[in-house]
Amino acid sequence: MNIAIAGAGLVGRVLALNLLKKGYNITLYDSDTAYGEEAAGITAAGMLAVFAELESAESIIFDIGQRSIELWPSLLEQLGIMESFQQKGSIITAHPQDANELEHFIETLQSKVAEASKIKRLNQAEIMELEPDLAQHTKGFYLPHEGQVDAQVFMKTSSDYLLAHPHVTWHQNTTVDKVEEGMLYFGNQSERYDWVFDARGLGANVQMENLRGVRGEVFWLETSEVKITRPTRMLHPRYKIYIVPRPNNRYIIGATEIESEDKSPMSVRSSLELLSAVYSMHSGFGEARIVNMVTNCRPTLKDNLPKIENSDKLTRINGLYRHGYLMAPAIVEQALNEGIFK
């Protein structure tokens, strides 16, 4: 069976990995290079925050996220990078003056899913036991089962794997103009396939209504003065900063969410807010080196929920918003079971 996938970002790669298990021949098309320098998936922190994302999301995100956490290990094992999966839970804390934000956050989670009752309240000693470098914080919560996927390792390794696979053909720097049932159009050409998947993200905006971009901004910091070992969030009335540890003393820092498809460099205001916030969380970041500053746009629909459209010989997947790594494996599984595998 010959399959085409338009869009080789996170969703396109997860699709390809699943379809290769069935022995299908895969042809990938993407306007980017095979290493996804422009993909939202390479910018992401890769957080698997099933609880933390609930505050501003529908409860269905929790169910999808739980299933994705179950599916990620087999995908990473397929690529030989199981070490890129971490599930040590996460910590949420706040400065004393923002304690009300912390309580409101947890109350919101508990009102949405019964499993939120498993969230553990932490005092200063308990925070220090889990993360000694956060000992200055007197109050927090431990969110079990949360974790992360090393997004950059996944993107790099999946590129290598798919490029080397005998059943994969990859058309790099190729913009797909339109997809239809069993048909794919690019430039002045068209190709017929047994099934076509549209995973173009924002590239599908001509064919998918109400699709918009939401800008995200992150810093990569490097410091030997900080030893945080699990994803950590700090609540603030204006933003919810997250710190995600990576190997070699590096940390991904993010928080901003802007209704814009602008991918230009980060503004001074955003930079100051993020860096001031992370410094207030741990003074060790004061001497950190800024390794990278990255902006990108996440494909988002009107209701901020993912969308699957299946018809004969065609599947569309889009709108994963800021939940790409949290939702992609489960959304792909659902799309396949309701479409080509049905």
Order of helices and strands: EHEHEHEEHEHEEHEEEEEEEEEHEEEH
In the CATH hierarchy, what is the architecture of the largest domain at level 2?
3-Layer(bba) Sandwich
Strand order across the largest sheet: 6-7-5-15-16-17-14-18
What is the CATH superfamily of the largest domain?
A: FAD/NAD(P)-binding domain
User: What shape does the CA trace take?
Assistant: globular
Could you report the average pLDDT, rounded to the nearest whole number? 95
CATH topology assignment of the largest domain = FAD/NAD(P)-binding domain
What is the total number of structural domains? 2
The residue fraction in helices comes out at 25-40%
Please tally the helical runs, counting DSSP H or I stretches of 4 or more residues. Answer: 8
The CATH class of the largest domain turns out to be: Alpha Beta
Task: Give the structure's gist in a few sentences.
With 342 residues, the protein is of the alpha+beta class. The chain is 29% helix and 31% strand. It contains 8 helices and 20 strands.
Features of the shown structure:
D-Amino Acid Oxidase, Chain A, domain 2, 8 helices, FAD/NAD(P)-binding domain, 2 domains, 8-stranded mixed sheet, 342 residues, alpha+beta
What does this structure look like?
The protein is of the alpha+beta class and 342 residues long. It folds into two domains: 177 residues, FAD/NAD(P)-binding domain (3-Layer(bba) Sandwich), CATH 3.50.50.60; 144 residues, 2-Layer Sandwich (D-Amino Acid Oxidase, Chain A, domain 2). The chain has eight helices and 20 strands. An eight-stranded mixed β-sheet has the order 6-7-5-15-16-17-14-18. A hairpin with a 2-residue loop joins β19 and β20. α1 packs across α8. The longest helix has 20 residues. The radius of gyration is 20 Å and the shape is globular.
